[in-house]
Amino acid sequence: MPDLLIELFSEEIPARMQSKAADDLRARLTEALVAAGLTYAGAAAFSTPRRLALTVQGLTGQSPTTREERKGPRVDAPEQAIEGFLRGAGLSRDQLEIRNEKKGQVYFATITKPGRPAADIVAEELDKIIRNFPWLKSMRWGAGSLRWVRPLHSILCILTDEAGEVTVVDLDVDGIRAGNTTEGHRFMGAGRFAVTSFDDYRAKLRRAHVILEAEERAQHIWQEASNQAFASGLELVEDRGLLAEVAGLVEWPVVLMGRIDEAFLGLPPEVLQTSMKEHQKFFSVKNPKTGRIERFVTVANVETADQGATILAGNQKVLAARLSDAKFFWENDLRTVQAEGLEGMGAGLAHVTFHNKLGSQADRIARIAALAREIAPLVGADADLAEQAAKVAKADLQSAMVGEFPELQGLMGRYYAQAAGLDPAVAAACQEHYSPLGPGDAVPSAPVSVAVALADKIDTLTGFWAIDEKPTGSKDPYALRRAALGVIRLVLGNGLRVPLAGSIDAQLLRQKINLYGHKAEKGEIDTLEEVLDEVAQHGVFGAAFHAVLDRLQSNGQPKDQWAGTLVAQVGATLPEFSADLLSFLHDRLKVHLRDEGLRHDVIDACLAMPGNDDLTLLVHRARALGDFLKTDDGENLLQGFKRANNILTQDEEKDGVEYSYGADVKFAETDEERALFAALEAAEPAIASALKAEDFARAMAAMAALRAPIDAFFTAVQVNAESAVIRRNRLNLLSSIRNICLQAADLTRIEG
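-> structure tokens emitted (752 positions)
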């Protein structure tokens, strides 16, 4: 069985494309070979800046001969049908077989396809793969029609049998003919050379100063950089993403460590690290005692006679220019903060549009500050500090430093808040209020940070809900799913008992006032502001809205005076918007909890209960119910409940009455019936007490005690007795089962 070796040699492939391209080459070719009837023992793909390589071991020498039998038309079928069958089979009429079947004589064709040499199959499939390779971006060059990520220069494609004999695959792609040669390093290689196998290929590449394996290059870079840092009493800052990227930029990594000019060491370490990473692809080296970034590591792609001194000098010169800019921005920002304060730095946000329908960044900040103040007591934060933090949290967006390094927003806000002498909790909130940004991001725990982060994300959600810009399908241009997940993780990660409906209602109302206030009469705005105060003090919008209108009516203002006004419009639409947004949060919660094994129907059963805007309570209930349903008692009780509910529902519909009262033990005729009465009487207060204490595990344990008597009841008792009195009493008993079980969750929503 021969081994296949392929190399596609080109100009430099972007580092971030290399790994996927190698995987695509391996997957596409091996799948095509298998589809063509070939088998193989193993395959591996490799990438360097200038090449994709693939080795396939133990490839079968040719595909097997196949025989396919096809049933055709009847012998007396129209001539056109027979001719069509012959064309499809590629046979003549005398090659067909006639067989007798129930409906008459039928033509059968036996199609034999001889096996093909592996070389022919490889040539055919590799040609297609190269011409249709899934590059994110590709280009044409010269006069050819081929598109590749960068100009493709050569193709190496050989089959090596067990005796070591090499066969060059006959392949020509847009004038590029496959051969058995390649070349090594661009500068340190010695021209093209022939190879006979994968092992020969890899060994000769190394002698030509090319390390084929990306992982080996990365490991070499990390080890050498760590050793150099350690030798200087310093520590290399880990950055696996940068390591993978740099490993894709060099074929022969030469690690060099340089110094950062003393003038720049006073910059925040994050500034130094970001500038070096984004602009020069340098690794940061810090002093573990001070935390300062003091040196850098660069990776060259060539060995030099002066051991990299010239390369380092050039890199240090370029770095100094970059850091001079950063130092200027930093010092200028500090002067602004000292002269105008952090709010002064952010004053320009009044002229920065957040969204053309939602106003400026300053408008948004005012809404966030108001909501943060309301949320603060719910999360254990000082209301004044929360409001202050919200007002300055986005001030750094106006800083020169963030203008140059947008990825530092929030972090620079923390530095500037510290420079302005603000409370440490306010400074922390400036950095942390954006978090969590993704599934792997840490969740803030400081109360002021949590209050501002929640307010920020709720404002984002309510704003786009207010203008009906909700996610549709896979489209989510404003990252609203991420914002919703952020709210969920903030609440659950901190175990917060926050009724979100009130916060959503308050912020939706602020959004509506912001959107339509300029068109309304002053009296309308005053009324809505009054409703807003009522929501902040007493809860959700509906009750607050009607309380304000009732108060106005008692003062002699008729309710109908608001017909057709902004007040009426808000009163009619806001509850619907609020319910829809809360439902969106619940959907995100289901996705979030799916990884921990909580079933969606279990969550639905808990969502049907009061207080479903308290996510911590909701999840606590769902986890307890989910654990309960995994037990035999839980599963059997569920089936008993469903049986009771089905019988009761059907009989109530048939009889046109509701069997919800009047079950009396004196009408019980069997021991099983009396035992169920006793069990229900004992369970109901125990379940009610546990639910009041929000001890859902204890409530489920009390429900579990009902399993045996319910099972025994249905085994021994016929509900539809001949006596109308007995029948009614038993149906009322089933109603008791239903009512008690529904106290914990809506079990009708549980599947199965």
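The chain has a mean pLDDT of 91.
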